[in-house]
Design a protein that fits this description.
By secondary structure, the protein is mainly alpha-helical. It folds into 2 domains: 123 residues, Arc Repressor Mutant, subunit A, CATH 1.10.10.10; 37 residues. Helices cover 63% and strands 6% of the residues. It contains 8 helices and 2 strands; from the N terminus they run H-H-H-H-H-E-E-H-H-H. It has a two-stranded antiparallel sheet. Strand 1 and strand 2 form a beta hairpin. The longest helix has 21 residues. It is globular.
């Protein structure tokens, strides 16, 4: 049955969370139009947590385990929406440092409030033990995928035709 499929359940939860977060925004319209996506929020949080350090695109690729083209597109959108600036590094003109704009910091504060509300809502009625077991299970699943040789190979080729 499709509902019992682990992958289906994970994807279904992820989509529902994204919808609830995106649709629950009661922020003024000006900010609403440039509201960051979940990955943009994670990037903003990472840069804030490492304030004072120089952050580059390649760092974000490694930290979030996403491809160069994906990160590049996300950063272009963030720059267009005035959330970040990319400044050419004086020591290596091929690279650009990523700097947060004040607008990104303000939006992140509002997003954190919404994420806290959503987190409380989603864990309502779930015991501490159940939550700990859930987190351990998710971490094991991630570890299984990271260690799997089969999926390391498939990451570099088109596995959609493989059986």
């Amino acid at each position: 049955m499709k509902e019992d499929n682990v992958l289906f359940q994970i994807k279904s939860l992820e989509r529902l969370l994204a919808k609830k977060f995106l649709w629950s925004r009661d922020i003024d319209e000006k900010i609403e139009q440039t509201m960051p996506t979940p990955i943009q929020i994670k990037i903003i949080e990472y840069i804030l947590e490492h304030e004072g350090e120089e952050i580059y695109q390649k760092d974000l690729e490694k930290i979030f385990n996403i491809r160069r083209a994906t990160v590049s597109g996300v950063l272009q959108t963030m720059e267009k929406n005035d959330l970040i600036q990319r400044i050419t590094d004086v020591t290596d003109t091929r690279t650009k440092k990523i700097i947060l704009n004040e607008k990104a910091k303000q939006i992140l504060q509002k997003c954190r409030i919404k994420m806290d509300e959503l987190s409380k809502n989603i864990t309502e009625g779930i015991s501490e033990e159940e939550l700990e077991n859930f987190i351990k299970t998710i971490q094991k699943m991630k570890q299984n995928l990271e260690q799997s040789e089969k999926y390391k190979i498939c990451a570099t080729i088109d596995c959609s035709t493989k059986k």
